[in-house]
Amino acid sequence: MSASAAIEQRNQDATIYVGNLDEKVTEELLWELMLQAGIVVNVHIPRDKVTSRHGGYGFVEFRTEDDAEYATKVMNMIQLFNKIIRVKKSSQDTKTLDIGANLFLGNLDPDVDEKLLYDTFSAFGGIVETPKIMRDPDTKMSRGFGFVSYDSFEAADLAIECMNTQYLCNRQIVVQYAYKKGSNNERHGSQAELHFDSAS
Questions:
Q1: Pick from 34, 48, 108, 150: most CB atoms within 10 A?
Q2: Strand ranges (DSSP E) for the chain?
Q3: 194 or 8, which is more confident?
Q4: Is the dihedral of CA 87, 6, 12, 115 positive or negative?
């Protein structure tokens, strides 16, 4: 099965994000740990293609949404190799489409393509269109930045929290809300962020 097929078949609602992982953590170790919360279907820790080192985060898919929900409660903030791990649901339950949940991705490695962006960022929620990498019109080479649009601000907020300053293809990327054109740098989702901050 190809990576893209595996992504499409993944049950987003039963998938959790696990962050702040020590470099010694492996897929096997994470699988064994999460079995304490429920039946695990899949574990994926993205790794650099050159160094094979992971970026300190991964995704665990459970058989049921209830198991995933339970894992976020019992596994969050536990210590693993002297690091406190963070566990969150990787997608939020959203039924309405939020217009403007667009993210700017900066400092992208030339090897990062649209498929890699989709495979990485679809874990946080529904992506409404294929991620876009800005390219030179003549050479088609990446200009080092791109955009991802989500169907909810919850997904966009989670992607920023989990991926900003993380390494993708050996480069520390920037993930933030894209600016609206002609609006004095007002950010997409600023009201949602204020709501989130006050609610948390």
A1: 150
A2: 15-19, 40-44, 57-62, 79-80, 83-84, 86-89, 102-106, 132-135, 142-149, 167-168, 171-172, 174-177
A3: 8
A4: positive
